[in-house]
Specification:
The protein contains 17 helices and 22 strands. With 528 residues, the protein is an alpha/beta fold.
């Protein structure tokens, strides 16, 4: 199917469509200018989804046909058995004739959209309350009262909702049906929107009771909204005493011989020194070409391999996905990175490479391993959307190259202002989603800096806000700077420049195998 999509777009006006990482990029046919001076039209070869970063249009192959005035029959994957139903807002509900696939589509062609998505933009723009309902009937009921509402196809299909960024909508109410599926959907949505209020139906209401049932039985339609508002339970109404007792119970059931956070096998000293990888903002800083990405890829794999129920998302904003995967393969096989990219003669190495590839493939199929590069992630919002899709799992995130993370333009426009925004955006992910977010950062380029002196916290570029927000700052530097560039396996120092996770403030040593991108701790004893 990949070739079909690429041929389709090439045939219909997308010029110079070439592979760039996991995507294809070319020149958009819908505007005459060349955007920012580089190809801004991006295509996912697996799904056929497209997006132009200049004119900000996008969607499926069908939305491309509509935009380019091309018959739908020319689109790859066209199925004449699809039926479409249009609702009052212009949103379409689509399903196959056997009803095996049901979803909504916005007038712009964005698949898996919530019902009545226009309400989202209105809620953002006008700072109005937004209701999230189960099904279009309840959505229309709320809408008829002069309120803004969106809907899910069902309590078990939340994909359209999970893709929405609710960050700028402060007043949200979840109004799911009064049944097991509705309660489960409410719990899932509260993980995505923890500040949302929830309709808590009174005891005695029938199984499956919903907003429309409540409206139909109301004797006074004029005051129905006030009746419904009385059922809203806000997050602030949680009894703090219950929360305290739950925490104490958790503490008393926790094994004193295990770390507080996620365990590590290869980084035992790190595990001991921070009491496991806990929710928080971690920064790994070093000069260029010292081994930050190698340290990060080794740590990432250690967390995934050691914790069987843990999902990891690797956002690579320096290297593309292929380079990161090659590092993973080299670390797992002990085969040099350049060598494994060529035909292997040694049968043992062939076996090792095949096993490691199978292992990474299995992790991906189990949705425990995700890798994104700059062709897929441009800014903090993209990053947050990817996190939201995996909130039902135990999760940690790596951001390799945090200073390449795009943020919204500030009024001041200075590097300092932008880095403050980056630091706040990353800290917000930690605070809202309660996950570890581990980032790499460059050190300041200073001609007067003494290479023999260990780096300090203030050497991190624009360090103020990052220093304040971080729970842990590790600084990597060569043990022998003068011979570092000529050594195949140099020793690196890992300095704990800031550590709010424990009282440890020392320096560890690791060996860096350049050929295989492997990091190994030295002389560890004791601890867990």
């Amino acid at each position: 199917m990949e070739g079909d999509y690429i041929r389709f777009y090439t045939t219909h006006g997308v010029e110079d469509l070439k592979k760039a990482g996991s995507q294809y990029t070319g020149w958009c046919p819908f505007h005459a200018d060349k955007g920012h001076g580089r190809p801004g039209f991006s295509v996912n070869p697996s799904s056929g989804l497209w997006y132009c970063h200049s004119c900000q249009k996008g969607g499926s192959v069908f939305s491309f046909c509509k935009e380019a005035n091309i018959p739908m029959t020319e689109a790859p994957g066209y199925d004449p058995s699809f039926r479409r139903y249009t609702y009052t807002t212009g949103t379409k509900k689509k399903h196959t004739t056997d009803k095996t696939s049901v979803y909504w589509e916005t007038p712009q062609g964005n698949d898996k959209a919530p019902y009545n998505p226009e309400a989202l933009e209105e809620a953002r723009a006008n700072k109005q309350r937004l209701w999230i309902c189960e099904g279009e009937k309840d959505t229309e009921t709320i809408h008829s009262l002069g309120e803004l509402a969106i809907g899910t196809p069902s309590a078990t299909d939340l994909k359209g909702i999970e893709r929405v960024n609710f960050r700028e909508i402060e007043n949200i109410v979840l109004a799911m049906d009064n049944d097991a599926a509705g309660k489960s959907a409410t719990q899932s949505l509260r993980k995505i929107i923890p500040w949302a209020g929830v309709i808590k139906w009174p005891k005695g209401k029938t199984e499956g009771y919903d907003v429309t049932d409540c409206y139909n039985e109301a004797s006074d339609k004029g005051t129905f909204l006030k009746t419904l508002e009385a059922y809203i339970e806000t997050p602030e109404e949680q009894d703090l005493s219950d929360y305290i007792q739950e925490k104490i119970a958790l503490y008393q059931n926790r094994d004193p011989n295990k770390p507080l956070g996620y365990s590590l096998k290869k980084f035992k000293a790190l595990q001991r020194n921070i009491d496991g990888v806990q929710p928080g903002l971690y920064i790994v800083g070093a000069d260029t070409s010292i081994g930050k990405t190698s340290f990060m890829t080794n740590l990432f794999l250690d967390l995934i391999e050691t914790n069987e129920d843990l999902t990891g998302i690797y956002f690579s904003l320096d290297d593309n996905k292929e380079i990161i995967l090659n590092r993973f393969l080299a670390i797992g096989t002990n085969i040099p990175i350049n060598q494994l990219q060529k035909k292997l003669i040694n049968k043992d190495q062939q076996f090792q490479l095949s096993n490691e590839a199978d292992f990474l493939s299995r992790l991906s199929k189990e949705r425990r391993l995700f890798i994104y590069d700059q062709s897929e992630i441009q800014n903090a919002t993209d990053l947050e959307n990817s996190i939201q899709l995996n909130l039902r799992r135990k999760l940690f995130v790596v951001v390799d190259g945090l200073f390449n993370l795009d943020i919204e333009e500030t009024t001041e426009g200075s590097l300092r202002a932008k880095n403050i925004e980056r630091a706040n955006a990353l800290k917000r992910l930690v605070d809202v989603y309660r996950i570890p977010v581990i980032c790499t950062a460059e050190l300041r380029k200073n001609d007067k800096k003494d290479s023999k002196k260990p780096p300090v916290l203030d050497d991190i570029m624009e360090t103020g806000k990052f220093k304040y927000n971080a729970n842990l700052v590790l600084l990597l530097y060569p043990d022998n700077p003068e011979e570092y560039d000529t050594q195949e396996s140099p020793t690196l120092n890992v300095k704990y420049a800031k550590n709010k996770l424990s009282h440890y403030r020392g320096t560890d040593k690791v060996t860096f195998n350049r050929l295989c991108s492997q990091i190994r701790e030295q002389d560890f004893s004791g601890g867990y």
